[in-house]
Amino acid sequence: MVTLKGAKIFLRALEPEDLGFLHEIENDESVWDISHTNTPYSKFILQQYLENAHRDIYDVKQLRLVICNYENETLGLIDIFDFDVKHKRAGIGVLIKDAQHRARGFGKEALQLLINYCASHLDMHQLYCNISEENTQSIRLFQNQGFEIVGLKKDWNFIKGNYKNEYLLQRIFS
């Protein structure tokens, strides 16, 4: 699929071989604040998830794709969630797993590819994301792809004993 191929990376569907990678990400406590996870995931539960990952976005209202470079190295994940056909909108999130792969343009390219896919194949009117006020790198990434801050949710998330603000960013397609 040409739409999901870029200069440095491509996006692909989840495969059974991704179980280990998915298990590492879902059980990495350093990203639980971003994913709003509170408990670890077993390989059994993730295996069941992978067995159902082939289901249609119109049915399950979400799509998770793997970000890979052309050396077939798995770099991260990018998600469409809360897919709403009637209102033609969805949430979007991106995660590059390892620090050595961050700030190298992989997240930017993955986001560009998924935005184009949402506009051309899913006929979306708008995309949104929720980003912690402290996550300036992600805010900048999304703003550089045409997302605008449309609101601040005060004391939105309770993280490690403190309330944190969260921005709502939105991109509307013309």
UniProtKB/TrEMBL annotation:
PROSITE patterns: GNAT. Keywords: Transferase. SUPFAM superfamilies: Acyl-CoA N-acyltransferases (Nat). GO terms for molecular function: acyltransferase activity, transferring groups other than amino-acyl groups. Pfam families: Acetyltransf_3 (PF13302). It comes from the Bacteria. Residues 9-170 form the N-acetyltransferase domain. Gene3D superfamilies: 3.40.630.30. This is GNAT family N-acetyltransferase. It comes from Subsaximicrobium wynnwilliamsii.
